Description:
By secondary structure, this protein is α+β, with helices and mostly antiparallel strands. The chain contains 8 helices and 4 strands; from the N terminus they run ααααααβαβββα. The chain has a 4-stranded mixed β-sheet with strand order 2-1-3-4. It is globular and about 60 Å long.
Amino acid sequence: MIELTPLARPYAKALFASALESGSSEEMANELHIMATASESKEVRNTIENPTLSRQEVVDILINLFEESISDTSKRLLAILADNKRLNLLQSIYSIYQDLLAEHKEQNSVTVFVASDPSSDAKEEIEQKLKSSYGNDANISFSKDPSMMGGLSIKVGDETLDLSIRGKVKKLVNQLNF
Length: 178
């Protein structure tokens, strides 16, 4: 599978610069979140990949779908992505945009990798502990990784704290092989 980040970065940067200029960076983040989440659904993905539809028909369908929730800038983004056959980049664009927004706000971006979705109480407790360490404005997101087997892994910037079962097993294997 091709890595989409390098393809998505120019779109995200241009969108971020435009949003900063117009003072709508938070609104754009919300719109991107809506479009990225929808693009992961089977129905939207089938519409995007449907070979019988022209690019303009796909754009019209998506714009009708998001009509109430996105701005003209986002509608133009959809048209540009469709013209360049890049509608599959919406999730990557959103992710890069979030990083740019966090960097602009000088927020710590914290990603918590878990084997299975934590309960709402556990999630809240994890968020509170991370906010006490990294600031109340820390941008905390959860990502599911079943290969971890259990526990969690916390990534802040380029540092990772691995408290997963997989990480502990790897550490034990390394110690035994030494």
